[in-house]
Amino acid sequence: MKNRFDLIIFDWDGTLIDSIDWIVSCLQIAAEQCGCLIPKHQAARNVIGLSITKACSTLFPTADQATLLRLANCYQQAYSSKQLSKEDLFPGVYEMLVELKSSGYQLAVATGKTRVGLQQALQATVTEALFDITRCADETASKPDPLMLHQIIRETDVGYERSLMVGDTSHDLQMALNAKISSIAVSCGAHPEDILQQYHPLLCLSQPAELLKIIRG
Question: Which of 102, 164, 178, 204 could join 185 via S-S bond, C-beta 3.0 to 4.6 A?
């Protein structure tokens, strides 16, 4: 796979940072605070990667708009109560990003997080300077709509055939399919390998840092 791609677009939660269990916990906390039925662990995992608005409307389909807004706010407050650091990244991720950047790859993030949430996470993990461009769900369409990938590819001026999406959920991989770009899955996040393989990634890695060896060839 050496020299095949110029732009590598990463999902954030569950792909670069080990945050899935914390997200599930925060969704459950939000449900309890808003008097909603607390979602089971797997149901909460299944919506990770969507915008928080879309995630809440999927988990709580009978909730009215006011309740959905409260759920989103409670989730964001719960999530931001944890202080992140570089140590929350999956093993070897920081070093991988540094090497990819220094090797000339353009790096991007396409995430279901809000802009405020992503900026806080980038600063806390000391990774902000490693990415050329980032897109968040409150700035564009939620996954699996391909709009954020179209925007990233257009702004980096890289061809679709030279762009790669790396993600841990069906939403990431379906977005890549919708955008007609290649993808690589990682099975350390929200969705297991058997689900991810249904979306025809080039590879399914157990850990994101394994990508570095693949890209090197």
Answer: 204
Cα 133 from Cα 151, distance rounded (Å): 10
Percent residues over pLDDT 90 in the chain: 96
DSSP E strands: which ranges in 137-205?
Answer: 163-167, 182-186, 204-205
The rounded distance, in Å, linking the Cα atoms of 122 and 11 is 13
Domain chopping of the chain, boundaries: 7-18+85-216, 20-80
- Between CA 110 and CA 46 the distance in angstroms is 18
CA angle centred on 145, ends 47 and 62, rounded to 5°: 45
Helix (H, G, I), strand (E, B) or coil at 88: helix
From the list 141, 216, 212, the residue with the least C-alpha distance to 179 is 141
CATH of domain 7-18+85-216: 3.40.50.1000
Per-residue pLDDT of 166-209, as tens digits, reads 999 999 999 999 999 999 999 999 999 999 999 999 999 999 99
Angle, helices 52-59/65-80, rounded to nearest 10 degrees: 120
Q: In this predicted structure, what is the pLDDT of residue 188? A: 95
